[in-house]
Every structure is written in C-alpha cells, then in structure tokens.
User: Fold this.
Amino acid sequence: MTSTSKKTTAAQADVMKPVEDAVAAGKETIEQFVKVGTETATKNYEQAIAMTKEQVEKASANLFRNYGELNELNKDNVEAVVAFNTKLVKAYEEIGKEIASFTQTSFESQVEATKAIFSVKSLRDFVDLQSNLARVQFDKVMAEGAKITEMSVKVANEAYEPLQARMNVTVEKMLKPVAA
Assistant:
C-alpha cells in the first residue's frame, strides 16, 4: 500500500468517525429506549395482572358471600313454609275434631228428639215440640258455625305469620342491593 492510499484511508477514517459515533450514539439511545419501554410495559403488565387478580378475588368473595346469604335465606323460607304447614295441619285437626264432636252431639240430640216425638199425645204437643227442636237446632248450628269461623280466622292469622315475616325479610334482602 502506498502512502497516498494510506492517507486516503486515514482521511476516510476521519470522515467516517463522526458517522460511526453518531450511529453508535443512536444505537445506544434506541437500546436505552427499548430497555425503558420494556421495563415500563412489564411494570404495567404486572400491575394490570395484580389489579385483575384483586378484582377477581373481590368478585369471587362477593359471589360466595351472596351465595351463602341466598342459601340462608332459602333455608329460612323453607322453615317458614314448614311452620305454616304444621300450624295448618294442626288447625285442620282441631277443626275436624270440633266438627266431629258437633256432629255426634247433634246426632244424639236427634235421637232424643225422635224419642220425644214418638211420645207426644196430641198434634198440638207435636207442633210445639217440633218448633222447639227446630229453634234449638238452629241456635246450635249458628253457634257452631260462629265457633268454626272464629277458629278458621285464628288459624289463618297464626299460620300466615311465619310466611308474612319471611316475605318481609326476603323483600328487604332483595331490595337492599338495589338501594346500595
């Protein structure tokens, strides 16, 4: 190689030095930019994952809490229906006993009335006895009807108390999330 070509190569090297330095500086800037961008993206990704995990945990906890409350509410509602049915069956039994007792006493009264009718001696005694028996029987039927009606109203009020209470609680629980 000659001295001219050495000078040309040295001159070219001097000219290329600032370009190479600029390329190296640009490369370093890009590497730094990519590194910062990657770190920021990783940090944001980790935060997003953590926030998502937290929201899923909160939603799951709320879902299970609400599921538990709903199960408890349903259990209490079933217990109220069972209490209602128990009171209703007991009341029907009492009313049935009352009707059976009334029927038996009425039958016995009718047997006594029939004996009395066969023992009358005149038409006037027969009419008086028949009128008296009809009035007494009518009074008994009216009194028994009032008694059965009173028992029925009492049963209805007592039997529906647990259902009414559960309905109030259920409506309150269902409206609570709407109000919140």
